[in-house]
User: What shape does this take?
Amino acid sequence: MLVHPYDSAMSEDEWRSWIAHSAKFGVLAVGAGAGQAPIMVPTHFVLSGDEIVIHLHKVNDAIPHLETGANVSLSIVGDYAFIPGAWRAKDPANLRDGVPTSYYAAVNFVCQPTVVSDAVEVAQIIQAHMGEFQPAGDYAVVDSVTAPYGPMMTIIRGIRLKIVGVDAKFKYDDHKSVEFREAMIERLNARNIHQDAGAAAQQARRLGLIGEWSEFRHNHS
Assistant: This one.
């Protein structure tokens, strides 16, 4: 993923915080061999320190490739919006000269996978997911024996993904002026379709963090 200095994460805490407050849903890309397209697996995930855990059905096409231990990628994208060219035109009298762009937040992980088949350990991974996504605890006991989850553990595989690389990007025109970005925030909130509100919130947060890019770059060089 191409990451410019002005749209990179300013710290590890920034991308971790974004994931913590996002839907925690991404696409796992698993190599399928020379000349083959990667296997793409949409999935919820739990991030804990330097490890990500997911679970898949044991007949998922990705499992044999994951068992090799070859590195895989997990991509998370959110808070995105299409920005029309007219919004970015330098001359208000010539809006067609504006060049459109996309705003988005994205984190791409490179991970080393381990496939887990032991029923007790699989149950622990399922419990981690339930604790993350149903924190109220309104579900049955999750273990390797008790119904309804216990009997399912033989058909589920846990996947532990050790994080070995991270690219994080927040693409919101941060290299442009404060006035320009303030105008974009107003436009996004006024249009308010799809993920516009999230994109506006991210741009406002980055604006508060960075201010004028030229000054920020000078002070942090």
